[in-house]
Amino acid sequence: MLESLAESQDWIYHLVLLSSSMGGALLIALGIPGQFLPVLVSGVFWLVAGDSATEEMSPSATELAVLLSLGVMAELLEFVSGWLGGRTAGSRWQGTLGGMLGGFLGAIFGNILMPFVGGIFGIIAGTFVGAVFGEKMAPQEGGNEHAMQVGLASAIGRTLGLVGKLAVVLGIGFWAILRLIF
Q1: pTM confidence score
Q2: C-beta atoms surrounding 153 within 10 Å
Q3: Using CA atoms, how far apart are residues 163 and 78, in angstroms rounded to an integer?
Q4: pLDDT tens, residue order, the chain (182 aa)
């Protein structure tokens, strides 16, 4: 039985999804939430190809919802892991807030100071500095040693969260490879 043109071109969508996943991994390395790039690509395919002759090439609404859910989950994983890291060292809310803001600002300034690699280092260093600063600003100061422990634990947690976020976007790419093969 001959495949229709749409069925024979289904590989295009998965190849583009794989490419966007790899691009998303690069964006994550730059400190930008790149796990949403495959969602955007899939959404464009869904909107453009949904009612045309290439409908078979279009992702389903369920697939789009799963990709969006994975992207949101990966972003939450990154922030929660930094929070949990700080909490294991006894962080107060000031240290937690400082770590989150420091990581955000670190990504921005890291990319400005060192394009292409500064974002990831900025997130980690910013989380550390922000958590230390926040702990030092807390009313019942626990001392420099406590603030440094909280900063280090927050930075380690955030790093593990970034690794988890990267694993999610690479998992999407691996899934696209499997769909290309099978």
Answers
A1: 0.83
A2: 23
A3: 8
A4: 445 544 556 788 889 999 999 999 999 888 888 999 999 998 888 888 765 555 555 677 888 899 999 999 999 998 899 999 999 999 999 999 999 999 999 989 998 898 877 888 999 999 999 999 999 988 876 788 999 999 999 999 999 999 999 999 999 999 999 988 88
